[in-house]
Amino acid sequence: MTVEQPFETDIAIAGGGLAGLSAAILLARQGHSVVLLEKNEYPFHRVCGEYISEESRPFLASLGLDLPATTYPLIRQLQLSAPAGLSLLTDLQPGGFGISRYRLDDLLAQQARAAGVRLMTGLKVDAIQYRNGKQEMQAGKLRFAAKLALGCFGKRSNLDLGFKRPFAIHKPGKAGNYIAVKYHVRYDQPIDTIALHNFDQGYCGISAVENNQYCLCYLTIADNLARCGNNIPQMEATILAQNPFLRNIWQTADFGDRKPISISQVSFAPKSTLENHVLMIGDAAGLITPLCGNGMSIAMHGAKLAAGLGDSFLRGKISRSVLEAQYQRQWKQHFGRRLQAGRAIQYFFGNPRLSNWLLRAGRMSPALTRFLIKQTHGENF
Ligand SMILES: Cc1cc2nc3c(=O)[nH]c(=O)nc-3n(C[C@H](O)[C@H](O)[C@H](O)COP(=O)(O)OP(=O)(O)OC[C@H]3O[C@@H](n4cnc5c(N)ncnc54)[C@H](O)[C@@H]3O)c2cc1C
Fold it and tell me: Which terminus has fewer CB within 10 Å in the chain: N or C?
């Protein structure tokens, strides 16, 4: 592997989150040579609410992950609260379970290595180019020539700029520029309940993961942080704490001595599922609003679709143009409506008056609440 001579592989994948690792495992098990480049080293923490919808359980089991309820708590209740404290408790069907990304991604990375994936960590992909029917992935001095490249690099990456993706090159308006913050805490909340507490221009989820820990994760507009002098504790004390449930969490939870992790420039703008012959999967193809608790399932389900079509392409059963057309169509068919529903619900949740109204309506009509939950979730895959 030198600058002169690229390393030949069937599949090259940029990004080893849930989308990249799942696609890599499936394709390697189908007998293809797979290189996956991930810029971080496993295990590592990520900003994520860490609630996985049950629809993903059979797929994770098929990848070799047995996730017992004794270790990874089952979540079957949803508590919602509006900024002034009005709240609602409802059944969550089909529900989900909690597992930290620190654990989940590491377990999948182990499965990928066992399946024969050439998993190269600490390597950042700089560019992906298409030349003479081959896709070339470059990371520093290393080059990989692949029959097929998959873009699994998440919400925002240096590669988005390379593809000149609109959401990456245009500055978002105040209403479209979000930040997110995550902690692991110890807190007194029923283990089977995920709570989603609204505050002015944001919402905060809390639910159990392994080792008696709770994942506490919120999303808000960047402007809220700017108004607090870019000081996260100040924003939590002045804006989040207006909701009495959140005030209680910040007053009574044990935050330990770990600092929060945070991300900025989160965008929910629609994205293309194909860029210069690269199939985009997971958040790189489109980010569902986190309140749906469904982004991880979409990332894995998208990986399954791409791996199925990729296998047919590599075996010569379909051409590249059919592969690309079918992938884009299937992606839209499975996830397009869910992403739209998520954006619409988030619009209500960011607004104190509208979220209060929605909660009142939900308290009066459990069928409405069930309907909204259903819009954001999918079927087993
Ligand atoms: C605040 C918040 C809360 C959320 N809560 C939930 C939840 O509770 N439940 C749920 O289902 N979903 C949730 N989501 C969504 C979920 O986290 C994502 O949908 C999911 O992680 C997508 O997986 P992915 O593989 O596409 O991306 P990621 O998991 O982000 O993986 C992308 C990977 O690509 C790597 N990468 C990027 N650029 C490069 C490069 N140039 N070279 C090499 N590697 C690169 C990154 O290091 C990363 O490891 C939440 C999202 C947010 C923002």
Answer: N
Query: How many whole angstroms from 155 Cα to the centroid of ligand 1?
Result: 6
Question: Ligand 1, residues 60, 121, 217, 296: which to mutate, most atoms within 8 A of Cβ?
Answer: 296
Q: What is the mean pLDDT of each run of 10 residues along the chain (381 residues)?
A: 78 98 98 98 98 97 97 97 94 95 98 98 98 94 97 97 93 84 97 96 97 97 96 97 98 92 94 98 96 94 98 98 98 94 85 87 87 86 96
| Cα-based angle 82, 178, 254 (whole degrees, multiple of 5) | 60
Tell me the angle at which helices 295-314 and 18-29 cross, rounded to the nearest 10 degrees: 30
Nearest CA to ligand 1 atom 31: 17
* Sign of the torsion angle spanned by Cα atoms 304, 342, 376, 46: positive
Cα(297)–Cα(19) distance, integer angstroms: 9
Task: Provide the whole-model pTM.
Answer: 0.96
pLDDT at 3: 52
Before 172, cis peptide (omega within 30)? Answer: no
CA–centroid distance, 380 to ligand 1, in Å, is 20
Domains identified in the chain and CATH numbers: 7-171+267-376 (3.50.50.60)
Omega into 94 within 30° of 0, i.e. cis?
yes
Q: What is the pLDDT of residue 257?
A: 85
Smallest CA separation from ligand 1 atom 37, residue: 153
In this structure, the residues whose C-beta lies within 6 A of any atom of ligand 1 are 14-20, 37-40, 46-52, 124-125, 152-154, 157-159, 180, 217, 219, 266, 282-284, 290, 293-297, 299
Q: How far apart, in whole angstroms, are the C-alpha atoms of residue 90 and residue 193?
A: 9
Q: Which atom of ligand 1 is least distant from the CA of 217? A: 1
Contact by Cβ (8 Å): 288, 317: no
